[in-house]
Specification:
Structural class of chain A: alpha/beta
Radius of gyration of chain B: 21 Å
Shape of chain B: globular
Number of strands of chain A: 14
Largest interface: A-B, 50 and 64 residues
Number of strands of chain B: 8
Largest sheet of chain B: 6 strands, parallel
Oligomer: heterodimer
Number of helices of chain B: 13
Largest sheet of chain A: 7 strands, mixed
Radius of gyration of chain A: 19 Å
Chain lengths: 336, 385
C-alpha cells in the first residue's frame, strides 16, 4: 500500500497492465522518452522497451487509427492524447471506426483501445489546452466514456479500461492530477483477463463520495472536490446533509445510483465544468425527471461551465464552477 | 550565393572558413538594417517574455530563441498585402505588422478579447495557431480566394517539423498544388517536436523532398541565416505571383531552447549537442555579417538594441496596466451578432456570487521524470554580440 497521486495511480495501472499482459502497448506524443507532458507514462519505456512504449509522429488521427489497427490484430493499445483539444484530429477515427468496429464485425472484433485524454481547465494553461469534450464522446454510440477522480479509481479504472473489449474514452481531470494522495494497494483489483464483474463495476457504476439524505449533488472529475467542499459548507451553514455522487462512468450512466439518490434526497443538483448545452448534466437531469419525478420536491438544476469557448486563463476562474456557484445552485434547489 | 551543400541555400558565412555569399538582389543597405532591426526586436521580445514568465508575470510561454531569422527573413520577403499565418512559435510575428507587443504579451498573460487578440484583417496576420498544422489550410484558402478575386497577393504559413506529420499539412499541400494557389509553406525544421527528434518524426532525410509528392518546388535553406530565408521566400513568392503555385521551404535549424517554459529538454536530449548550434544563431550572425559589410557599426547596433529594449519596456508597462478583465469578457464576441439567452443567465449567475480572486499568471512548471521536482530548463543564452 502506498500513498499515490492520481498521476501515480494511472502510472501504476499502466505498469501493472503492461507487466501482466504483453499485448498492452502505449502510444502517443512524448509518452516514451519524457513519460508524457504530465509524466503519466514515466518509467514505462525503461521497463517495457521502445516497441511497447512509443513516441509517435505528431498526428492524432494516425495515432488513434493505428491503435485501431493494432487492436484488430489483437494488441491492447492505450493512446495518450496530449491535451483535450488535440483529440479533434483523431475524432473521425474514434467516432467512425473505434465506436463501430464491434457492430460492423458482428461483435467479433471490438475496438479494444483506450484513449486517455487529460482534460479541463484550472491549470493556467495557454489557449486551447483546457477543453472538456467528454459529452461529444458520450453522444457517440459504441463508446464507453469514463472519468476517475481519485488515485485509487485512476489505477483500478485504468486496468478495467484496458481489460474491457470495447473502446474506452478515458477522461483524466488534469487539474486534480496531483491534488491529493490516497492509499492504493499494490494488489490488483481483479485478475486481468478474468475481471468481468469488477470491470463492469468500475466502468459503469458511480461512487458515493459523501453520504447525505437532504440533497444529492451529482458530478464527476475536477468538480468532485468542489462539490465535497460545498457539501461541508451546507452541513455547517444549513445543517443540510448532501450526498455527493461521483459518476465515474459518463457512458453508460449509472441510472440506478442517480435515481436512487435523487428519490431519497428529493432534491438534486448536477455539477460539471463542461459547457451546459447538451452536456452530461442535461442527460442526468432527464434521467432524474423521467424516473424520479414524483419523488422530487424541486426540479434538478445545473451548475456548469458556460456555453462559451473556454476563456483565456486570466478569466478561467470566472468560467469554472466554484464552491460559491455550487452553493448558489444548491440554494435554488433547496429553497425552491 | 554560397552554397555549402548541394541544394542547401546559405548566404551568411562565419567570417572565417565559410565564405559569405553575395547579398541577394532586391536587398539594399537600408533593407539589411531594417531586417536587422526586426531580428533584434523579435529577440528582445523573446528574452523579455521568458524573463516575465520566470517572474510569474505571464503564463507558460513558447520561446523561439534562434528562430528569428526564419520569421523576420520570411516576413521581410512578403509584400504588405500578403498574409501570414503563424503558429505559436511565431507568436510575436504580428509586432512586425503593427500588432502591439503588449497585445501578444497579454495573450500569454491569459487575457483574451480586446487585450490579447488582434484583428487579422488589420495586420494581414492570422491568429496565433495553437494546434499543429491546422492553420495551413487557412493560408491556402485565403490565397485561393485572392486568386479567385484576381488580387495579386500571396500567403505564407509557418509550421514546424512535427506539423508535417499531421494530415492538415498534406491536405493543404495537395489543395495548393492542385489549385495552383499562390502560397508559401515555410517549415521551420528545428529537429524537435517537444521530445520527439526528427528521425522519429519522419523517415525522409529532408522535409523539402516532400514537395515532390505534390509536384511543387521544395527548397532547403539554412534556417539560422535570415538572408537565406529571405531569398528562398522571395523566390517562392515570385513563383506564386507568376501563377505557378506553391513552394515548400524547409528552413533547417535547431531548437536551441526548450519547447516552452514548462518543458525541460534535459529529460530527453544531450544539451551539449545543443551548444554547438548556438554559434549559428541568427541575430549575432546577421550582426557580424553586417559589420563585415560595413553596413552596421557598434553605434548603430547599440541604437537598434536600445530601441528594441525601449519598445519592449513600454509593452511590458502597457501589458501590466491592463486590469483583470471583467467577467463579461467570457460572453463577448462568441457570436458576431447578439448573444443567446444563456449568456444573459450565465452573467447573472456570475454576478450573484462573490468574484474569485484575480488569477496569478503562474502556469505549470517543468516537472522532472518521476521525482515530482520542479526544475527550470536552462536559461536562454545571453546576447552573443
Amino acid at each position: 500500500v502506498s500513498e499515490l497521486t492520481m498521476v501515480e495511480g494511472l502510472n501504476l495501472g499502466l505498469r501493472q497492465a503492461m507487466a501482466q499482459d504483453d499485448r498492452v502497448v502505449v502510444l502517443g506524443e512524448d509518452v516514451a522518452q519524457t513519460g508524457g507532458v504530465f509524466r503519466v507514462t514515466a518509467g514505462l519505456l525503461k521497463e517495457f522497451g521502445a516497441e511497447r512504449v512509443v513516441d509517435t509522429p505528431l498526428a492524432e488521427a494516425g495515432i488513434v487509427g493505428a491503435a485501431i489497427g493494432m487492436a484488430v490484430y489483437g494488441l491492447l493499445p492505450v493512446v495518450e492524447i496530449q491535451f483535450d483539444v488535440f483529440v479533434y484530429p483523431g475524432f473521425e477515427q474514434i467516432v467512425v471506426h473505434a465506436a463501430r468496429y464491434a457492430w460492423r464485425t458482428k461483435g467479433e472484433v471490438p475496438s479494444s483501445i483506450v484513449v486517455r485524454i487529460p482534460f479541463g481547465g484550472g491549470v493556467r494553461a495557454p489557449e486551447l489546452h483546457s477543453d472538456s469534450p467528454e459529452a461529444l464522446f458520450a453522444h457517440v454510440p459504441g463508446l464507453k466514456v469514463v472519468c476517475p477522480t481519485t488515485p485509487r479509481d485512476a489505477r483500478d479504472m485504468m486496468l478495467a479500461a484496458i481489460e474491457d473489449p470495447d473502446p474506452v474514452i478515458f477522461m483524466e481531470p488534469k487539474r486534480i492530477y496531483r491534488a491529493g494522495r490516497q492509499e492504493v494497494p499494490e494488489e490488483l483489483p481483479f485478475d486481468l483477463g478474468n475481471g468481468r464483474k469488477e470491470r463492469k463495476e468500475l466502468l459503469s457504476k458511480a461512487r458515493v463520495a459523501r453520504d447525505g439524505d437532504d440533497l444529492t449533488i451529482i458530478t464527476y472529475g475536477p468538480t468532485v472536490p468542489l462539490c465535497l467542499k460545498a457539501a461541508e459548507r451546507l452541513a455547517e451553514e444549513r445543517s443540510v446533509e448532501a450526498c455527493v455522487i461521483d459518476l465515474r462512468s459518463l457512458y453508460p450512466l449509472d441510472v440506478d445510483a442517480i435515481v436512487a439518490a435523487a428519490s431519497r434526497c428529493h432534491r438534486a443538483l448536477i455539477v460539471h465544468e463542461a459547457p451546459r448545452m447538451s452536456g452530461i448534466g442535461a442527460e442526468v437531469s432527464s434521467v432524474i425527471h423521467e424516473r424520479a419525478m414524483l419523488d422530487l420536491e424541486a426540479p434538478a438544476m445545473r451548475v456548469t461551465g458556460f456555453d462559451v469557448p473556454f476563456p483565456q486563463f486570466a478569466n478561467e476562474d470566472d468560467y469554472l464552477p466554484s464552491v460559491d456557484r455550487i452553493l448558489l445552485g444548491a440554494r435554488k434547489v433547496l429553497d425552491f | 550565393m554560397a552554397d555549402s551543400e548541394s541544394g542547401f541555400l546559405r548566404i551568411i558565412g562565419d567570417g572565417a572558413d565559410v565564405p559569405d555569399g553575395a547579398v541577394p538582389d532586391g536587398l539594399g543597405d537600408k533593407d539589411l538594417l531594417e531586417l536587422f532591426r526586426w531580428l533584434v526586436l523579435l529577440r528582445t521580445f523573446d528574452l523579455r517574455a521568458v524573463a516575465l514568465q520566470r517572474q510569474g508575470r505571464i503564463g507558460t510561454y513558447a520561446l523561439y530563441w534562434g528562430e528569428e531569422g526564419t520569421q523576420a527573413g520570411a516576413l521581410y520577403a512578403c509584400e504588405d498585402a500578403d498574409w501570414v499565418f503563424p503558429s505559436y512559435r511565431q507568436n510575436a510575428i504580428g509586432i512586425l505588422r503593427g500588432v502591439p507587443a503588449a497585445t501578444v504579451l497579454a495573450w500569454w498573460r491569459g487575457y483574451g478579447g480586446e487585450y490579447g487578440f488582434y484583428n487579422p484583417r488589420e495586420h494581414r496576420v492570422g491568429p496565433i495557431c495553437v494546434p499543429i498544422a491546422t492553420h495551413l489550410p487557412h493560408a491556402v484558402g485565403l490565397a485561393w480566394a485572392a486568386k479567385i478575386r484576381r488580387d495579386r497577393l500571396a500567403s505564407l504559413s509557418w509550421f514546424g517539423d512535427g506539423a508535417t506529420s499531421e494530415g492538415d499539412f498534406h491536405e493543404a499541400m495537395n489543395f495548393a498544388s492542385v489549385l495552383k494557389v499562390p502560397t508559401v509553406f515555410f517549415c521551420v525544421n528545428n529537429q524537435w517536436a517537444i521530445s520527439t527528434p526528427l528521425h522519429k518524426q519522419m523517415a525522409t532525410k529532408t522535409i523539402s523532398e516532400k514537395a515532390a509528392a505534390y509536384a511543387i518546388p521544395g527548397v532547403r535553406v539554412d534556417g539560422f541565416d535570415p538572408l537565406a530565408c529571405w531569398k528562398a521566400t522571395r523566390d517562392a513568392l515570385d513563383h506564386a505571383r507568376a501563377g505557378d503555385g506553391p513552394t515548400l521551404i524547409e528552413a533547417f535549424c535547431y531548437r536551441i531552447m526548450a519547447h516552452g517554459t514548462a518543458d525541460d529538454p534535459r529529460l530527453y536530449r544531450d544539451e551539449s549537442e545543443t551548444e554547438k548550434w548556438k554559434a549559428l544563431e541568427p541575430v549575432g550572425r546577421m550582426s557580424a555579417f553586417l559589420h563585415r559589410l560595413g553596413v552596421l557599426d557598434d553605434d548603430k547596433e547599440a541604437a537598434v538594441r536600445d530601441e528594441a529594449k525601449t519598445t519592449m519596456a513600454q509593452a511590458v508597462t502597457d501589458m501590466e496596466s491592463i486590469e483583470q478583465p471583467d467577467q463579461s469578457i467570457l460572453f463577448e464576441h462568441v457570436y458576431a451578432t447578439g448573444s443567446p439567452w444563456t449568456f444573459t443567465e450565465g452573467l447573472e449567475e456570475l454576478r450573484a456570487v462573490e468574484r474569485p480572486p484575480a488569477v496569478k499568471p503562474i502556469g505549470p512548471q517543468p516537472t522532472s521524470r518521476g521525482t515530482g521536482e520542479h526544475d527550470l530548463p536552462p536559461e536562454p543564452p545571453q546576447e552573443t554580440t
